Amino acid sequence: MQTLASREDARPIAIPQAEPQPDAAFLRLRGLTKRYESGFIAVDNLDLDLPKGKLLGLLGPSGCGKTTTLRMIAGLASVTDGEILIGGDDVARRAPHKRDIGLVFQSYALFPHMTVAENIAFGLDMRGVSRQEARARVEEALEMVRLPGYGSRKPKEMSGGQQQRVALARALVIRPRILLLDEPLSNLDAKLRDDMRIEIREIQKRLSITTVFVTHDQVEALTMCDVVGVMAGGRLAQLGTPSEIYEKPASLFVAEFVGRANVIDCEIVGRDQARIGDQVYRSDTKGLSGGKAKAAIRPHRISLTPDRDRALVSNATNSARGRIARITYIGDIVQYEVEINGAMLKVEVPTASAGHGFGADDMLLCEWKPQDMLVFGS
Amino acid sequence: MIGKISVPFRIVVIFLYLFLLAPILVVLPLSFSNDSYLTFPPESWGVRWYVAMFQHAGLINAFWLSLGIASVVTALSLAVGIPAAYAIGRHEFRGKEFALSLFTAPLLLPSIVLGLAILLVFVQARLLGTVTGLIIAHLIVTTPYVVRIVITSLSTLPPSVEEAATMLGASPLTVFRRITLPLMAPGIVASAALSFLLSFDEVVISLFITGPRLTTLPVEIFNYVESQTDPMTAAISVVLVTATLVIIMLIERTLGLSRTIGK
Ligand SMILES: Nc1ncnc2c1ncn2[C@@H]1O[C@H](COP(=O)(O)OP(=O)(O)O)[C@@H](O)[C@H]1O
Ligand SMILES: [Mg+2]
C-alpha cells in the first residue's frame, strides 16, 4: 500500500508512465477468470497481449463474457483468478478508483446533477488539479469531441450522440493509462454510429491511447480495431488483425460470426480436397486429410457465370453447376440461392453487375477460389 | 404530464377528492363555531375555540414535546435508514433478504400488535413514560418507511453512474457524498417529511408508552376528545391540517413532489 500511494502521488498527471519498449504488450491478461457466485464461469482463462497505443476490439455474441472481462480490467468486477498487467504492474487486486483507467459506458452514465463541464472536471477534481488548469483542460476536452461551448448544459439537454461524446471527454480528460469502451455505439442510430466510429478511432489514434472496445457488431470490430479478439463462451476463440479474423477464421464459429458464410456438410477426401455430394473441390483443409467436415464459403466470394455445360475443378478455381432456386434483391446486392449437388449456396453479387439475365430456375456455374473454401473438421 | 383525461375518469377523480376532503370540509366551518357543544351547523360563529386552544397548557406542552420528538425521530431514522437502504439496495451480501424483511416488517404489523410488543419490552427495560422510550417506539414505525423510500429512489439511480465516478478516481466515500447522496436527495427529503409526520401523528403506539406526565399531542387530543365534546378539536384539526399542507407545499416548491415520490 505504501509504495502504491507514493507512486500515485509522485506521478505528474500530464506525463505518461515510464514507457515500455514500443512493441512490448502494455496490457496483458494472464489466465483471467471470472466465476460468479452462482458458479457460472463467465470468463475462462483468458490470455491476451495488447501493445501500447493499439485498439483491441472484443467481439462476440451477447453473453459471451465481454462486459465481464472489461469490468475486471476496470476493477468493477472482482477477479476470480489470473493477472491483469498494465505497463508491468499487476492491478488485478487494486481498487478501481486507483487504477487510472477511463471507462465509457453503454448508457453514458453522466452525472445528471452536474453540468457537462462539471462532469468532465470531476476526474480532475479527484486528482487535485487546480481550478484554473481544470478549466483549460475541460475546454480542450470539449474541443476534442467537437462540443465547444456546451460546458454549461445539463446532460439531459443533450442528444444521445452528444452525451456519448461528453462521456468520452470525461473518460479521456484524466489521461488514463487505458481506455475501455463497452458497446459505446449501440444506443445510437445508424448514421450517427458511422460518424462516431470514425471519431472515436481518430481520437484514439491521435492520443495513441491503449484501448479495449467491446462490441457485438462485427462491422465495428473490423473497421475500427487494430486487433480483434473474438470471444465465445468466456474464451478467446481467435485473436488477430481484422483481415486475419475475416480471411483466416480459426474455427467455424469465427467464420460464421464474423461476416456471412455458407456452411455446407462435406467430407475431406485428401489434403486440401473436400467432397460435396459426388463432386470433389480444392479447398483449404488446414492440414486435415480425412473425415466429416464443414466447409465455409462467403457468399460474395462466389461468382456466377452462364452455364458452360461442364463443371471443372482446376487448381485456380472450383466450379459447380447449379440451378437458381430463389432471388432476393437487397439493394446494394442481389442474393441468389443456388442449388448445387443437393446443397444450397447463397451467392451475393453487387447490384451494378448483377447480370440481370439470371432468373429463377436458370442453370449456371458457381465459381470460387480454393482459398475461399475453408474446411473445418467437425 | 397526463395529456388527455376522459370525462368519466375526471368525474371519478373529482368524487375521490371530495371523499378524501369531506372531513376537512366539515371541520373547517365547525372550528369557527362559538358554541359550547358540537352542533352542525354551528349556531354562533367566532374564534373562541382557537383562543382556548392556544391557552390550553396541556395541549401546548404536548405540542412542543411532539415537535421535539418528531424532529429527533426524523434525524435518527434517516441516520439509520439511509445506510441500511444503501447497503440493501447496492450490495450483495448474505442475509440481504432477511435484512430487508427485518427493516420493513413493522410496516405490515398492525399498530396495536406492535404497540403491545413494545409495551412488553419497555416494561422490562423501564422505558415506559420516558422520552427515550417514545423516540425508540417511533423509530420502529418510521425507519421502515425511510428504508423503503430510499431503496426505491436508489433503484432509479443506475449503478453505472456511481461506477463512472469510481473510475474517475473517487473513493467509495467520495462517490457516496458527491454522487449518490445528491441524487438520492428527493427520496431523502420525502422520507424525512414522512418520518416527521408519522411521528407527529402517531397515536396507537404512543398510547401504550405515554403517561400522565408525558403526553404527545395526538394522545393529548385523543384524551381530550374522550372527555370533552366541544369544537376545540375542530380548531386543532384545522391547525394541524394547515401545518401539514404548508410542509408539503414547501417540499413541492423546493423539489417538486412528483419527483420526490416517484418518477
Ligand atoms: N452478476 C452475475 N451473476 C451471474 N452471472 C452473471 C452475472 N453477470 C453476468 N453474468 C453472466 O455471465 C455471462 C457473461 O456476461 P457478460 O460479460 O455481460 O456478457 P456480454 O457482455 O458478452 O454480453 C452471461 O451469461 C451472464 O448471464
Ligand atoms: Mg455486455
UniProtKB/TrEMBL annotation, chain A:
Catalytic activity: ATP + H2O + polyamine-[polyamine-binding protein]Side 1 = ADP + phosphate + polyamineSide 2 + [polyamine-binding protein]Side 1
Topology of this chain in the membrane: Peripheral membrane protein
Limits of the ABC transporter domain: 27-258
Record's keyword terms, sorted: ATP-binding, Cell membrane, Membrane, Nucleotide-binding, Translocase, Transport
Major location (coarse): membrane
GO terms under cellular component: ATP-binding cassette (ABC) transporter complex
EC category: translocase
Pfam families linked to this entry: ABC_tran (PF00005), TOBE_2 (PF08402)
E.C. designation(s): 7.6.2.11
Molecular-function GO terms, alphabetical: ABC-type polyamine transporter activity; ATP binding; ATP hydrolysis activity
Entry's localization field: Cell inner membrane
Function: Part of the ABC transporter complex PotABCD involved in spermidine/putrescine import. Responsible for energy coupling to the transport system.
Family: Belongs to the ABC transporter superfamily. Spermidine/putrescine importer (TC 3.A.1.11.1) family.
Subunit description: The complex is composed of two ATP-binding proteins (PotA), two transmembrane proteins (PotB and PotC) and a solute-binding protein (PotD).
Listed name of the protein: Spermidine/putrescine import ATP-binding protein PotA
Gene: potA
TrEMBL record, chain B:
Cell location: Cell inner membrane; Cell membrane
SUPFAM superfamilies, A to Z: MetI-like
Transmembrane segments: 12-32, 63-86, 98-121, 127-147, 187-211, 231-251
Topology within the bilayer: Multi-pass membrane protein
Name of the protein: Putative spermidine/putrescine transport system permease protein
Similarity section: Belongs to the binding-protein-dependent transport system permease family.
Chain segments annotated as coiled-coil in the UniProt record: none
GO biological process terms on file: transmembrane transport
PANTHER family: INNER MEMBRANE ABC TRANSPORTER PERMEASE PROTEIN YDCV
Domain ABC transmembrane type-1: 63-251
A cellular-component GO term for this protein: plasma membrane
Top-rank taxon, per record: Bacteria
Keywords annotated in UniProt: Cell inner membrane, Cell membrane, Membrane, Transmembrane, Transmembrane helix, Transport
